[in-house]
């Protein structure tokens, strides 16, 4: 279906932004967005921006089904109204927030191993295999997953999962509140929002939730990279404290600009797909 294609395309186009974000959050060699982009392009060519993309593409259908499935079913239980009845009897913002938090909490566990592998691969700065140069530590997503499993056991695949869960539980609540709030604002009562409204509301929901998620996103990415060679942090709190000590409070907003630029189109398309699917099958 065209919407699925657009969703995948959104992810592909958004991935270079995500790679720059992850590098800015976890490496100190870059002075800013432009410096990071120039360095990636010079050392690793255009392909450098697309490292670690295959697992997010492969897992997005599952992760989004958990997120939106849990959200709409929790809303169903909380409000006892079906999707069709919901335009006439809109759910309260408290219910929307609680359903969003539940969706965020459960999707975080599905997302954790895929996200870990993505971040590890995005952070490999080696250029594509050149004769004589040492190969990167991970040869691809499956090799990366197998190496982590072998070296650190199954729990290793969940490194950073706590920070990810803490990041996603409240911020996915914010995601759905922003989306619903904006849709209601711009839609006449009792009607379905137009496609343009869905796109704009979805885009701003992406930005608002990602701005709120950035502090824990930085900590999550750092925890995921910890232990690659030796363990630096004792835990999440230690990671927060030493990051702030070394880099100041600004550390909590590393990558926020580039991530917002990514969040708008990706989530605009995500919500458009969700609304269409609900109207067909709801
Ligand atoms: C702030 N957070 C964690 C969220 N809003 N999560 C919901 C889905 C985000 C979407 N898959 C994306 O990649 O932007």
Automatic annotation (TrEMBL):
Keywords from the named record: Membrane, Mitochondrion, Mitochondrion inner membrane, Repeat, Transmembrane, Transmembrane helix, Transport
Q: Does the keyword Transferase apply?
A: no
Segments annotated as Solcar repeats: 1-77, 91-185, 193-280
Under the cellular component aspect of Gene Ontology, which terms does the record hold? Answer: mitochondrial inner membrane
Top-rank taxon = Eukaryota
Subcellular location per UniProt equals: Mitochondrion inner membrane
Give the matching SUPFAM superfamilies.
Mitochondrial carrier
Tell me yes or no: is DNA-binding among this UniProt entry's keywords: no
InterPro entries recorded for this chain?
MCP_dom_sf (IPR023395), MCP_transmembrane (IPR018108), Mitochondrial_Carrier (IPR050567)
Bilayer topology reads:
Multi-pass membrane protein
Q: Which family does it belong to?
A: Belongs to the mitochondrial carrier (TC 2.A.29) family.
* Official protein name in the record: Solute carrier family 25 member 45
UniProt organism field: Gorilla gorilla gorilla (Western lowland gorilla)
